[in-house]
Structure formats: structure tokens, C-alpha cells
Design goal:
244 residues, alpha+beta, 2 domains, five-stranded antiparallel beta sheet, 9 helices, extended
Amino acid sequence: MTEIILSGTEETLKPIITLLVGIAQLLEDKDVGQIVGEPLDDQVAGMVHTSRLKLFCYSSKTPPYTNPIGKRLIKAEYQIPDINPRRITWQGVKDVCGGANGFMWGSFLATAKLDNGRWMHAYGATEADAENMLQRMLTLTTANVLSMGNTELKKIGRRAKGEPLYREPTRVYPAFFYIINSKRINKINKRATAQEQTTRQKSTLRGDFLERGTGRIKLYPDRPPKDFGRIMAKALDFSDSDFI
């Protein structure tokens, strides 16, 4: 049984006691997920990322990615969790975005619930565009699909009034991507902590993978970076051994 100690005058304590009793009744025999709308098992299942790929596309083929005069620059972001290292190639990632010709982005949203407790989302100009984009993204993950859906974000209400809220059909092109390897981040953190304990000096290796791994890998050129193989070998290392 939980005990709460309060102090104050009777006048100030009465509303506080009433509030605490109400909260206790609300939370009794419930997990936090039932309060916020997400069951505890779903929250725990999707808690740990092993790795993820973040993908960025723009309505401009090449930099600079700035708003054209009188037009709106579209930036489309996608995330692929638990990536499959064997499927990650420079051309393969670029092809997910439609290759050099890009793909049509818009107001249709395709979603997939995965068996790792996560979701994937993809926007397209039509239902088929959104679903095809999502299917291409799914080729890069180790997770399996439990269910899929597709819906249109109609131009009504707030979307009818605010241009940024509505996604007009627009062709977007692959710009860049980067990979975050959570195991590698944790591994570098452990190594840095050990170094600090040994040398009593604060290490600069704080586990930020982007500083030590892929960074932004450009997709708009015709060819991959010359050191792409080395970058990927380090970024996609999921072993428990430390190689730094």
C-alpha cells in the first residue's frame, strides 16, 4: 500500500486529498499504457532499436535544398527500423526512393505494423504510390509485417486552410541517408567509460554514432562515395566484440 505524507492547513489539504484519491482510483490495477492509450506489452516490444536507417528526399534533384522562388520545397523523411545488413547497398537504398527519377509524394499514407512492435509509414500521391514506396522500404528491414493499411489525408478542415498541412502531389528525389546502429553506440559508450576510469581523463568518444559512422551519405550523385564499403562495414557491425 502506498503512503503519501501531506502537510498544511485543512483548507489547503482538502482539494489535494480529493485529487489524490481520484488519481489513485484511475490508476488502480492499470498500467500506464492503458492511460495513454498504448498497452504496456506494445510499449516494451517497441522500446529497443537495434538499428535504423533514416532516408531523406526533396522536391529538388540536387542541392541547395532551399525554397524556390514562389514555390514550396518539399522534404520527405522516412525511417526503416531493424535494417537487414545484407540488403543495404548504395544503389539499393537509392532505388527505394525510385532511383534517379524519384517518386510521387502526396496525401496518401500507407502504414505497416511490424512484429518488432514498430510501425513504418510512407506517403504517396496515390494509394498505389504510397503502398509501393512502403513495400520497397520493407525490403530493407528484418521485421515481418503483421498488418497494413492505406488512407487518404483529405484537404478539409485545417488542411484546407494551411498549405503545409496538405500534401499536394509532388515528385521528390533521393537526397541522402544515414544509419544509426544502437549496439555500436552502446559499445562506444562502454569503451569511453572504461577509458575514463583507466586514464581519469574524459574521453571525447561519447557514443554519438553519427560522428564516427555514416554521417550523411549522398544519394543524388550518380555514384556512391569511394569509401562507401568501409563506411558500411563499420556502420553495419552488430557483433559484440569491440573493434575500435
